[in-house]
Amino acid sequence: MHATTDEGTDGLVGPAGQGCGERSVLIALLKAAHPVPAVAVTALSALLAAAVGLGPAAGAKAMAAVAAGQLSIGWCNDRIDMRRDRAAGRQDKPLAVGALRPGIVGAAALVALLACIPLSLACGFRAGAVHLSCVAAAWAYNLWLKRTVLSWLPYAVAFGLLPAFLTLALPGSPWPLPWLVAAAGLLATGAHFANVLPDIEDDLAGGVRGLPQRLGRRGSIGWAATLTFASCVVVTVGPTGSITRSGGVLIAVTLTLCLVSVAGPTAFVEGRLPFLVILVMAGVDAVLLVLAGRMQSAGQAWP
Questions:
Q1: I need a surface site. Which of 104, 215, 274, 303 has the fewest CB within 10 A?
Q2: How far apart are CA 198 and CA 40, in angstroms?
Q3: What mean pLDDT do residues 242-260 have?
Q4: What DSSP character marks residue 31?
C-alpha cells in the first residue's frame, strides 16, 4: 500500500513526510521529470547539433534550451497524470506514492517552461521560435492530444522541427534538408507507438485513448515498426538519392526486424520483445540521423 497526498495539501504525507529533507525532495523531483527520455532527447540533440556544425558555445545554449524544455514537459506530464498513476498503483511515480507535493511539481514545470523561453531565444529568434513551437506541441500532447486520435501529431511536429531548431541556430539560419526533417518526424512518431506498449492496458483502464491505445497492441507494434523502418529508408537514401551497398544491407536488416516485430505469434506480441526490437531499430535510426546531419554542415540546405 502506498501513501496518498490530497491535491490541496501543502505537506507531505506517509513515508515521504517523515523527515523528508531537501535532498530526497530533489531526487523525487528529478524522477518526476522523466529523466531517461529527457536525457536521451538532450543527448541526441547534442550529437545532432555537433553533426550540423554548431560550435561549443552555440551548442551549449541549444542544449540548455532543450534540457529546460524537456524538464518542463516531464513535470507537466507527471502532474497531469497524477490521479491516473495513483489508480494504476505506479510505484515508480513520486506523485503517485506521495513523495512530492503536487504544487512543487506544477511550479517546477512552469519555472522550467519560463526558463526555456529566453534560453531558446538566445539561439536566435527564428531558432528559438521553432524550439518553443516544439515545446508547445509537447505540452499540447500532455494537456489534451494524448487522449485523442491525434496523439501522434505532437511527436511528428516536435521532433520533425528539432533539426530546424539546430540548423537555424547556425550562421545564416539555414533550414534543414527536407529528408532530415522527414526522418526525424517518422522516427519520433514510431517511437510514440512503441512507447505505449509496456503500459497500454493501464492507459486504457485510465481512460487514455490515444491512437496507439485505440489500435491495440498488435496495431501499435505494426505502426511503430513500419514508421521506424520508413525513417531508416529516408535517412539512408536521402543524402545521396540512391541506395549504397552498405545502405541496402542496413535497410534489409531493419526490414527483417520490422517483420519479426509485426508477424510474430500472439505470445510474442504480448511480451516485451517487440518493444525491445523496435527500440533497437530506433537506436540504429537515431545514430543514422546524427551521421546524416553532417550533410547539413556540408552546406546542403533549403533555399
A1: 303
A2: 18
A3: 78
A4: H
- Cell numbers that stand for 127 in this block: 531558432
Nearest C-alpha neighbor of 64 from the set 21, 6, 127, 17:
127
C-alpha cell of 262? Answer: 509485426
User: In sequence order, what are the residues at sequence separation of 6 or more whose Cβ sits closer than 8 angstroms to the Cβ of residue 128?
Assistant: 65, 117, 120, 121, 122
Give the mean pLDDT of 54-72.
96
Cβ(161)–Cβ(239) below 8 Å: no
CB burial readout 235-273, b (16+ within 10 A) else e: bbbbbeeeeeeebeebbeebeebbeebbebeeeebeeee
Q: What is the pLDDT of residues 106-121, one digit of tens each?
A: 999 999 999 999 999 9
CA atoms within 13 A on the CB side of 91: 3
Q: Give CA–CA dist 275/224, Å, rounded.
A: 9
What's the confidence (pLDDT) of residue 11? Answer: 38
In whole angstroms, give the CA distance from residue 67 to residue 221: 29
Environment class of 183 (CB within 10 Å of its CB; exposed 0-12, middle 13-18, buried 19+): buried
Closest CA to 237 of 161, 183, 167: 183
Look at 213 and 303; give whichever has higher pLDDT: 213
CA dihedral 128, 133, 136, 137 (to 10 degrees): -140
Per-residue confidence (pLDDT) for residue 296, from 0 to 100: 53
**Vertex 18: Cα angle to 93 and 4 (nearest 5):** 40
Helix 211-237 × helix 178-195 angle, to 10°? 150
